[in-house]
Specification:
The protein contains eight helices and five strands, in the order E-H-E-H-H-E-H-H-E-H-H-E-H. It is of the alpha/beta class. The chain binds adenosine-5'-triphosphate (ATP) and magnesium ion.
Amino acid sequence: MSNRGVFISLEGIEGCGKSTQAKILSDYMSELGYCVVQTREPGGTPVAEKIREVLLDPKNQDLTSRTELLLYLASRSQHVEQLIMPALKKGKIVICERFSDSTRAYQGYARGLDMDMIETLIRIATGNLEPDLTIILDMEVKEGLLRAERFKNYKDRLESENLDFHNKVRRGYLEIAKNNPNRIKVISAKGSIDDIHLRIRQYIDELLSNYKDKPN
Ligand SMILES: Nc1ncnc2c1ncn2[C@@H]1O[C@H](COP(=O)(O)OP(=O)(O)OP(=O)(O)O)[C@@H](O)[C@H]1O
Ligand SMILES: [Mg+2]
């Protein structure tokens, strides 16, 4: 990892706490002296944020599964090239809410699109970039959706999917984790915000012990 930064993704179902934990983790790593870029998918750059609006707009009920997949990957392609890779080349830490495992879980396991096609398209969109560490925040679907709903009075296009869909997403994540035990760590997203941060921090500290260069 000598000439490159560190790429961390946070994954999990709607409302599991990705945004909350991404912010706390960014603050923690910044305080340690690392140069941190916090970002999210879909989105992260102006063009990718426009694609995000199309993807999450509940009015777009007629979006086909394949179009949805291609839009997510178009957004990722822009994000990787314009923001993530340049930051990693400068030795920065990139913390990203959602990345390719979301595509695998939602478009593959939940929508049922062909996994080989998905993997091929992911490679095209990312230029083979995968996170160094992925944290999956795992919790009961019902609880996650309740958390996501509590503080807003609308549901986006994906939150409006039924429980069965979100359960497939959750099971998909757990399967992906089982297939990638070195890169992906599953932690319980239940408990207090601080407790969950400490669970994440354990893996971060381990990762940082292998990352010698403090860029700033
Ligand atoms: N450990 C926790 N206990 C209780 N509430 C929490 C916890 N973590 C986050 N929340 C709250 O739950 C809601 C959802 O959290 P957050 O937005 O971080 O989830 P998310 O995974 O980013 O959701 P989304 O998939 O919708 O982006 C927020 O209102 C947040 O304040
Ligand atoms: Mg969020």
